[in-house]
Design brief:
This protein is mainly α.
């Protein structure tokens, strides 16, 4: 008999039982559910709502269930509908009447909100740790490639030469913000709903602050209806996970492009590539492609969460049972993608020569020629027009800017002097961009030091 079936005269259908059950999804919260129940039982005993002996018996019974579930000596049943009813049913089976007192002064509504918040705050720490591991690997690769030059792109057209490390550190900054956002979201997750009851609070003299302290919450929800009826903290976390995937997807797109024969900037390790069933020569960047593809899955989870909540009246509605499957899927997907992506970056080979060679075509030093003319007294707008004419002439002749003779360049502007070739060399185009956060090699080393938590002294990281 179901624990809530007192007013029912007939059993629910087997089809309805399957449809209503969430144990396949929420079973992963058994630890949080038991920890929450232990804290609740301690509070009930402290406040005299149950006896001290009953409180001890309940807590010991719950700990035995937790240990047995961990080591496989006990299992959750689909017949008990969800993880909350499973734990309570097992408790009653083990300790009898005392177990029936556990649910005093609480509802499944505030209980499930509690479990989800506890689960997500742990998950937030896990995702942040994985983001930090990826950043650490990016910093390692960047540190080895500060002086490696590759084309920077805008509109997928070669634009200006940059340090490869500088490019990688751009993603480090993005992942830093992702971790920061998740940390901020955790503050709003870590607010305790227990004590809200079904929606209106409880008539029992409970101590919510005691339970919050026991469970490590920073505060308690201040409105009992809000505590059980909103899942904005789940949606916010889902959005943060979507941003992580968006950044991973952008990076994956570049990994895929860079690993092509056309680019050849990197070579992915065999461990993170796959082959073709028909073309023996193929080495496909499937790890990056799957990350890019799974991004849509996480976006879809977020849209599902938003759609689920958009029309719900206060307070709790059964629709909200669907939140866990969506956010758990996002969590699992993001965690796996971060692990795979980190190892893929760790094992890839950087083809320095191919990157440098690619900077020689496409007039990546055109801006530097314009800047050079400005230093000689030309206005930038006039310099821009002059260099545009130089590029047109080079295209017609099949030459690079640096291939033109000094006399040829001086036909476009008398301000051009012999030092022009030094100004437009690819290496100097990079090294002279010394503004804070720029791609100059020394500036990139400063960025590395900042992200590593170290500093630069006499040109060396300490």
């Amino acid at each position: 008999m179901k624990l809530w079936a007192g007013r029912f005269q007939n059993d629910t259908s087997a089809l309805m039982d399957d449809f209503n059950s969430s144990i396949a999804v929420d079973s992963r919260m058994y630890k949080q559910d038991i920890q929450g129940s232990i804290a609740h039982a301690k509070m009930l005993a402290k406040c005299g709502i149950i006896t001290a002996a009953e409180g001890t018996e309940i807590c010991e019974g719950l700990m035995s269930i937790l240990n047995d579930l961990r080591n496989g000596a006990a299992a959750l049943s689909v017949d008990a509908e969800d993880v909350h009813m499973n734990v309570e049913t097992l408790l009653i089976q083990r300790i009898g009447e005392a177990g029936k007192r556990l649910h005093t002064a609480r509802s499944r509504n505030d209980q499930v909100a509690l479990d989800v918040r506890m689960y997500l705050r742990d998950a937030a720490d896990e995702i942040v740790a994985l983001l930090e591991a990826l950043q650490s690997e990016l910093l390692e690769v960047a540190g080895l490639n500060v002086d490696v030059i590759l084309p920077g792109y805008t509109h997928m057209q070669r634009a200006q030469p940059i340090s490869f490390a500088h490019h990688l550190l751009a993603y480090c900054e993005m992942f830093s913000r992702d971790a920061e956002r998740i940390g901020e979201a955790k503050k709003r997750i870590n607010v305790m709903p227990l004590g809200a009851g079904a929606l209106a609070g409880t008539t029992y003299p409970i101590d919510r602050e005691y339970v919050a302290k026991e469970l490590g919450f920073d505060a308690v929800c201040l409105n009992s209806i809000d505590a059980v009826s909103d899942r904005d903290f789940v949606l916010e976390f889902g959005f943060d996970l979507s941003l992580v995937m968006m950044h991973l997807s952008r990076f994956s797109e570049e990994i895929i492009l860079w690993s092509t024969t056309e680019f050849g900037f990197i070579t992915l390790d065999d461990a993170y590539s796959t082959g073709s069933s028909i073309m023996p020569q193929k080495k496909n960047p499937d790890a990056a492609e799957l990350v890019r593809g799974k991004t849509g899955r996480v976006f879809g989870d977020l849209m599902g969460l938003l759609t689920m909540m958009k029309g719900l009246p206060l307070a709790y509605n059964k629709d909200m049972q669907e939140d866990k499957e969506l956010v758990f899927d996002s969590l699992d997907t993001v965690a796996m993608c971060l692990r795979v992506f980190t190892d893929m970056i760790k094992t890839m080979k950087v083809n320095e020569d191919a990157m440098l060679q690619a900077t020689l075509d496409g007039f990546l030093n055109a801006t530097d020629l314009a800047d050079y003319l400005v230093t000689k007294g030309e206005s930038f707008r006039n310099a821009h027009e002059i260099v545009g004419q130089v590029v047109v002439a080079c295209e017609k002749q099949g030459k690079r800017i640096e291939d033109l003779t000094l006399e040829a360049l001086q036909e476009f502007s008398a301000r051009v002097k012999p030092d022009v070739y030094e100004a437009i060399s690819i290496e100097n185009c990079v090294s002279r961009r010394k503004t804070s956060g720029g791609t100059a090699f020394d500036e990139v080393r400063k960025q590395l030091a900042r992200l590593r938590g170290t500093s630069i002294e006499n040109g060396k990281e300490i």
